[in-house]
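Before relying on records like the one below, remember that each one covers exactly one chain. Contacts with other chains, cofactors or solvent are not represented anywhere in the record.
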Amino acid sequence: MNYNYLSREAKKQFWEKHLEQWQGSKLTLSSYCKQHDLKESTFRDWREKCTISNDQSLVEIPSQVVQNYISPHSSLEIIINNATIRIPSHFDSQHLKKVIEVLEGTL
C-alpha cells in the first residue's frame, strides 16, 4: 500500500485503526510504532487530530444568556480546529447568520 496516495479520509481511517489497536495493546507508543514500522511523530500527530475531531460537540447556548453576558465592547470568539473567528459585538446579526450558513456547508 502506498500511503502517500491515500485520500485524507483513508489516512484518517488508517490511523484511527492503529490508535485503537495501540490502545488495546500493552505497548508503549514507541514500541507499537517500531513493531508496526510507523513513524512515531506522525502517529502522535494523528493521535491529536483524531482526539480533537472525535471530541468535538456542539453546545446550544440560549440567546438570552448570550445577550445578558456580552458587553457593548466585547467580542465573540469561535475556535474550530486551528481556525479562530472573532466577531465584534457590533457585527450585524444577519451577516453572522449568513457566515454561519456558509461555514456549515464547508465543515
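Strands lie at 75-80, 83-88.
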